[in-house]
Design goal:
The protein is α+β, with helices and mostly antiparallel strands and 95 residues long. It has one domain. It has 3 helices and 4 strands. The chain has a 4-stranded antiparallel β-sheet. It is flat and about 35 Å long. The mean pLDDT is 82.
Length: 95
């Protein structure tokens, strides 16, 4: 497991939340070499999520609450051998 700097993993999502952008985390499995097992996701406005869906069709996964992030790019996940993604909202202390 590769850990990211706390600023990237926590400060950015917390700042987005403070300005009204809901965020959550996405976990992947198996984790490709050099990647982190978790990445944050920001919720898009409905009209933005619809535009992303119409432009990229099935290449982008829009998660719960219109979630969009690095680990929701379907083609890349498949190329990296990722078989499972899951979302999480809240605190976690075992990372």
């Amino acid at each position: 497991m590769v850990r990211e700097v706390h600023t990237i993993s926590y400060t950015i999502p917390q700042t987005l939340i403070a300005f009204g952008f809901p965020t959550y985390f996405v976990f992947i499995h198996p984790v490709p070499p050099g990647a982190s097992n978790v990445e944050w996701v920001v919720s898009l406005l409905d009209y933005v999520a619809e535009k992303v869906k119409s432009e990229f069709m099935d290449k982008i996964i829009i998660g719960p609450a219109n979630g969009f992030g690095l680990y929701l790019c379907k083609d890349s996940l498949l190329k990296d051998g990722v078989k499972e993604i899951s979302g999480f909202s809240g605190e976690f202390s075992s990372l």
